Amino acid sequence: MKRQFLGLLARVYVMQFAMEVPATVAMLAEMLMEYGFQVDIGTVRPLLRALQMEGYLESVLRDGIGRVYQLTEQGREELASSRVRIDELYRRLHNPLLDDDSAAAPARLAKVAATANS
User: Fold this and answer.
1) In CATH terms, is domain 2-117 a member of 1.10.10.10?
2) Are 79 and 19 within 8 A, CB to CB?
3) What is the pLDDT of residues 41-53, one digit of tens each?
4) Which of 9, 22, 40, 96 could form a Cys-Cys staple with 70, CB 3.0–4.6 A?
């Protein structure tokens, strides 16, 4: 489970990095390592290939640099959607009793309290 979650998180990071600047495999691997991922070029390539096949990244050859990866329009849409889901998860983790229906929060709080007391 942890490995799957980290894989999904790495996808989001790669898409974010590729949106900020067209990057080589080595640059993307280095950026992931800076955020604590234990990766190397060999583990990043399959991720990039998968993101390309899904239409989220494209690669182009740049003189003097080599192949760089950049986010496509479809990738921008997926990144935006991922950000919304991550924000929702973050909000729920930090305010588990609150959601969009704040009127229901007191009832949930009472239910949690009743469960804790039983």
Assistant:
1) yes
2) yes
3) 898 999 999 999 9
4) 22
